[in-house]
Amino acid sequence: MHDLVSQPIASGTRVGAVMADIRGRIASRRLAPGARLPSVREFAQALGVSKSTVVDAYERLVAEGAIASRRGSGFYVEGTTRPLSLQSLRPDLDRAIDPLWMTRQNLSCGPDVLKPGWGLLPDSYMPDEAVQRALRDIARDPDPAGRLRYASPLGLAPLREQIALHLGARGVAAEPDRVMLADSVSHGLDLVLRYLIEPGETVLVDDPCYFNFLALLLSHRARVVSVPFGADGVDVEALARVIAAERPRIYLTTAGPQNPTGATLSAATAHRVLTLAERHDMIVVEDDCFADFEPEPSPRLAAADGLRRVVLVGGFSKTVSGAMRNGFVVARPDWIEGLIDLKLSTCHSGSNLSAQVAHRVLSSGTYKRHVEALRGKLARDRALTLARLRACGLAPMLEPRSGPYLWAELPGGLDAAAVARFALEEDVLLAPGDVFSASRSSTGFLRFNAAACAEPRIFEVLARAIERAG
Amino acid sequence: MHDLVSQPIASGTRVGAVMADIRGRIASRRLAPGARLPSVREFAQALGVSKSTVVDAYERLVAEGAIASRRGSGFYVEGTTRPLSLQSLRPDLDRAIDPLWMTRQNLSCGPDVLKPGWGLLPDSYMPDEAVQRALRDIARDPDPAGRLRYASPLGLAPLREQIALHLGARGVAAEPDRVMLADSVSHGLDLVLRYLIEPGETVLVDDPCYFNFLALLLSHRARVVSVPFGADGVDVEALARVIAAERPRIYLTTAGPQNPTGATLSAATAHRVLTLAERHDMIVVEDDCFADFEPEPSPRLAAADGLRRVVLVGGFSKTVSGAMRNGFVVARPDWIEGLIDLKLSTCHSGSNLSAQVAHRVLSSGTYKRHVEALRGKLARDRALTLARLRACGLAPMLEPRSGPYLWAELPGGLDAAAVARFALEEDVLLAPGDVFSASRSSTGFLRFNAAACAEPRIFEVLARAIERAG
């Protein structure tokens, strides 16, 4: 087996550059085992090098065993073991702005590291007593289904009924049999993308957007295009231009307070987005995982569209628990049928235990009080954190009406990745803007989770990091 | 949007047949939106029809809007919304032998239906008391991580340490950092396939094999080839021929008592399989979810290979619980790194709650006694069920040494799908052989789960169904 990364590269030469290009395509599976390489003439033209340079590179790769020539029919990738490497799909990405590195760091760093940019709320913001009670109730339930048995294809019916009710309150009319449970919001989005797109197809995202959207789309090998998203939401003029030019198959966006900016959708924008989606036969996938943060629901695309070309995906990791992955997908009936097949074939069935916990917490008398208290706490956290950020010289893009996230620009055109590197030396893990930006145009921004910013040391470290980066 | 299924088809005509063929390719995404259709000449030749028939079919599909012609460059699939339909990937499959239908039926049928062919063990065979205790202990744990927090990238460390110990007892030497938790065995297999294969690549399975392998490979659009699997395990001569001829990228097989036959691997076969895998640069994926059923472990390919080209996937749905999906993947370190990236990008993180329950049950003093008692119960169940099957005229392929499954042939060359249809009329859901067979060569067989065969009515219904089908 060849380790493509450790092969000596004739670097600095044109032949070396061509070889490196091909190795990258093979490692990222853009050239799969057995695939035919471009002809020498085509490739020379595409790269702007001479044909002899390409011939030389191909011959050296044959000698290495990475590719093989077949008499009269060109060059082919050797059929050896070359797994899909997400890293090699974006080899140019600095780890400081790599969504996967971001997730790994946040999930694996120890308790000494402060994480003011990370998405999860602190334990004290979660309905722990209701979760404890749910676990005790499931333990003593005479029906052992939640403890022992596989879930049904759609998932626990009482939870789906609750979700349908919650959705109804946000104007999304969906019968419980159009709600399919998934193991998490990400899992729901993954199933939807798997159902609707092929590698190489174009997906449109907001810029900035939730950073794991970018990692997820990378794993689908989607072609990602983005549209500016600001204090008033998505830039609808830019949206119209990008859709007309790029013909994306899907627009992956968020409902409620957007991650990372905290901006919400207006009814006028919603109408405009749906009109464009209809005109260009584009599907909209709407991530609604922050629904319960909103005191008054902002417009949902799924509501206006009636779930014809909008798929809504949601979950409860922010308001119930992050430890027991619960998500759901709401879509038109024929798509739900196809999604069930995909779910059953790829993960067999969901977790009855997680669904039972979510159902019991949501139906407990205390959940409504919990989310109301949570909204109040987050409003106070946002106000305090905004003041502290301004004191450090940062300029918030807007003052969000709900949710934990704040999106703020560093002073003096500083690079957030550089500031984040200095902060990490002092055990503060920041979230630099370009992690969230498909076009890497948020270089000067940072995302903050106001609920994770109580510790004053965060702002001392931030101030020092800004000074060092300045 | 065009509903491909409901379009009127000029059935009975050659033009209609060509149109139906193309619609099927579009619905199953073998022809993706934007893809170029075969040239008229090529397609006419491939289907053995005249060019004018193909021209006629293409023109009608253009009129329908399913495809479009571009001047001078042929016909293309319209870029409209055509999701991946697993059903339409196998349109010829009778639902009685459709793995997806099988899973849906078993997961959704009511308590009145007896399921002697279904995989899960009855509640009374599960360590329910230990699960109840685990839930209570997690509820009162002063550390709320198992109730509230996201899991680490690899998953709960103490559970991975336990898994490493269990694997060591079966001869598989793996450090805990080579064990990655997944949400289920199926989810682990899905991640591994996603990491290692592309659509269209060839995967080899045993014939018969676990039916969800076939559904999973369908969702990956893998090309499936199979090799006969009998009372002595896989037919190694056939295996050598199939590998040489088909060059599969992966051999997906089972460790321990095979599902559905109950046969186990011998050391000699294991050596032969690994030698072939090395010679042909083939990866082996070994599903070890029945490990704890074996009193004495049979040989593991992962043990002999040292986890170089073998990936082992396991879980606990059969011996701990089916309600809280727990699985794991063990592989070489560089692959584990790539698998973590895929897991984080497609489902963000695993369930800390499920992992904590599994950890607590596995480390409870009662688990060892539980699995020992379970093995004894299953041995008695197998003996009783074998006797009852023989009394109905069925011939078991072998008498398995462990596990719940029995694989038995109907008398008189009867078709198991026909027998299953009659039995379903009396609310008994059987598992006909061809659900398990990629080549549909197990037409006369049925799988039984000896633990789910206590009810005498099953055999009364089976006897009647055999008589009616005879």
Automatic annotation (TrEMBL), chains A, B:
Organism superkingdom: Bacteria
An example molecular function term from Gene Ontology annotations: DNA-binding transcription factor activity
Entries under InterPro entries matching the protein: Aminotransferase_I/II_large (IPR004839), HTH_trans_reg/aminotransferase (IPR051446), PyrdxlP-dep_Trfase (IPR015424), PyrdxlP-dep_Trfase_major (IPR015421), PyrdxlP-dep_Trfase_small (IPR015422), Tscrpt_reg_HTH_GntR (IPR000524), WH-like_DNA-bd_sf (IPR036388), WH_DNA-bd_sf (IPR036390)
TM region positions: none
SMART domains listed in its UniProt record: HTH_GNTR
Source organism of the structure: Lichenibacterium minor
SUPFAM superfamilies: PLP-dependent transferases, Winged helix' DNA-binding domain
Boundaries of every HTH gntR-type domain copy: 12-80
Matching PANTHER family: HTH-TYPE TRANSCRIPTIONAL REGULATORY PROTEIN GABR, TRANSCRIPTIONAL REGULATORY PROTEIN
UniProt-recorded name of the protein: PLP-dependent aminotransferase family protein
Family the UniProt entry places it in: In the C-terminal section; belongs to the class-I pyridoxal-phosphate-dependent aminotransferase family.
Keywords: Aminotransferase, DNA-binding, Pyridoxal phosphate, Transcription, Transcription regulation, Transferase
